[in-house]
């Protein structure tokens, strides 16, 4: 089972950019589809972005499409989430997820501990 550690979350202002990182270890990175999910206070965890195990077929929630970009670096066993034009409604704990399939599902079985992103207005 792969272990995931997120980093990069912090307090930013609306309109700012931020890049989250998720380092994977303990598994064959190239065997896992990767994704980012988020959970805001009082809300359920939701899908944000996903990328296939080959590094193609990125997918995004409608709420972040055009603003967020997911990429992965197989040399570093790391997946990134570049977030631009941040809005207060993007405030949430962001979780990295991995699943040993081609394209991540809505219920992946490997999760990181989460990193807090707070966007002030």
Structure characterization notes:
The chain is mostly beta strands and 121 residues long. Helix content is 0%, strand content 49%. The protein starts with a strand and ends with a strand. The model has no long low-confidence stretch (mean pLDDT 96).
Distance between the ends: 39 Å
Specify the structural class: mainly beta
Largest sheet: 7 strands, mixed
The poorly predicted ranges are: none
How is this fold's topology laid out?
Elements: E1 3-7, E2 11-13, E3 18-25, E4 33-39, E5 46-51, E6 59-60, E7 68-73, E8 78-83, E9 92-99, E10 110-111, E11 115-120
Please sum up the structure shown.
With 121 residues, this protein is mainly beta.
Structural features:
121 residues, mainly beta, four-stranded antiparallel beta sheet, globular
């Amino acid at each position: 089972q792969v272990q995931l550690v997120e980093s990069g979350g912090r307090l930013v202002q609306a309109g700012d950019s931020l890049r989250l990182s998720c380092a994977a270890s303990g598994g064959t990175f190239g065997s896992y589809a990767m994704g980012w999910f988020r959970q805001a206070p009082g809300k359920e965890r939701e899908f944000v972005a996903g990328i296939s195990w080959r590094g193609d077929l990125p997918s995004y929630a409608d709420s972040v499409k055009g603003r967020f970009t997911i990429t992965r670096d197989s040399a570093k066993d790391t997946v990134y989430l570049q977030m631009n034009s941040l809005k207060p409604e993007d405030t949430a704990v962001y979780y990295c997820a991995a699943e040993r399939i081609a394209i991540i599902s809505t219920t992946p079985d490997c999760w990181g501990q989460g990193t807090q992103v707070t966007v002030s207005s």
